[in-house]
Amino acid sequence: MRKSHPIRRVMLATAATVSGVVLLLSLKPASGPASAAAPPASAAAQESPQGGSGGGAPASDRAGTVTGDAAQTPYGAVRVRLTVSGGKITKAEAVQAPKGPTSDEKTALAVPRLNQAVLATQNADIDSVSGATYTSTGYKKSLQSALDQVKKGSGGGSPGAAQARTVTGSAEQTPYGAVQVRVTLSGKKITKAEAVQAPKGPTSDEKTALAVPRLNRAAVAAGSAEIDSVSGATYTSTGYKKSLQSALDQAGG
């Protein structure tokens, strides 16, 4: 019997070992980058924007405030202020209302209901509150004047042209009566000023006739409330300037 050469035996053994290793590797499941678990997404990727794209929400409609004329009643003035956004009334309030032992009760009864009615109807066609007829009537008149201002401010015009708007200031009390100023603006320029309320009486009529026309002209010329008082009509002048400033504050001027 021929004996195999020692070197040949070693080579055969080595070949057998290599073949076994190759067989084992072929049976083991493949692993590598293709089968590895994907890395977790970043926090930014995991949080999807809610309610729209990440570009941000569109700008909201700007809110504007308009104050109606002070409507006189037998028990005092009623004056309504509206907040309007996107053509819709979002808030109604009475910045003036009758005051007194009886009037306070009626005002507390009527005004909140009237405010709510305005939001519901979006116009001045609202019912009067029983037991507060005068307050309700004054409220609706002032409300309508505020709505008229809103319509003027939102009316059509040539593109780029400044729209005229009318704003009424607060009624400023003086020892001789209230002074209330209404201004018409084109852009931020005052084109007209007028006193819708001014002191009345034997002495006051003369001072009002003297002061108001001058103050109106001065307001238009100055374009602000920084105007001189009229000599001999200090109280009227002071009330006029305060009301004028409140109107300009409302207009954003």
The overall pLDDT, averaged over residues, is: 77
Distance between the termini: 122 Å
Structural shape: flat
| Beta-strand content estimate | 15-25%
Rg (CA only):
40 Å
| Number of extended strands | 8
Number of helices: 6
Assign a percent range to the helix content. 40-55%
The H/E string reads HHEEEEHHEEEEHH
Main pleated sheet: 4 strands, antiparallel
Name the poorly predicted regions.
21-62, 155-162
Classification by helices and strands: alpha+beta
What distinguishing features does this structure have?
6 helices, 21% strand, alpha+beta, 4-stranded antiparallel sheet, 253 residues
Describe this structure in words.
There is one protein chain. This protein is of the alpha+beta class and 253 residues long. Helices cover 41% and strands 21% of the residues. It has helices at 6-27, 43-46, 103-121, 133-153, 204-222, 234-251; strands at 63-67, 71-73, 76-85, 88-96, 164-168, 172-174, 177-186, 189-197.
Give a concise summary.
The chain is α+β, with helices and mostly antiparallel strands and 253 residues long. The chain has helices at 6-27, 43-46, 103-121, 133-153, 204-222, 234-251; strands at residues 63-67, 71-73, 76-85, 88-96, 164-168, 172-174, 177-186, 189-197.
How is the secondary structure organized here?
Blueprint: H1 6-27, H2 43-46, E1 63-67, E2 71-73, E3 76-85, E4 88-96, H3 103-121, H4 133-153, E5 164-168, E6 172-174, E7 177-186, E8 189-197, H5 204-222, H6 234-251
Antiparallel strand pairs: 1-3, 2-3, 3-4, 5-7, 6-7, 7-8
Helix pairs in contact: 5-6
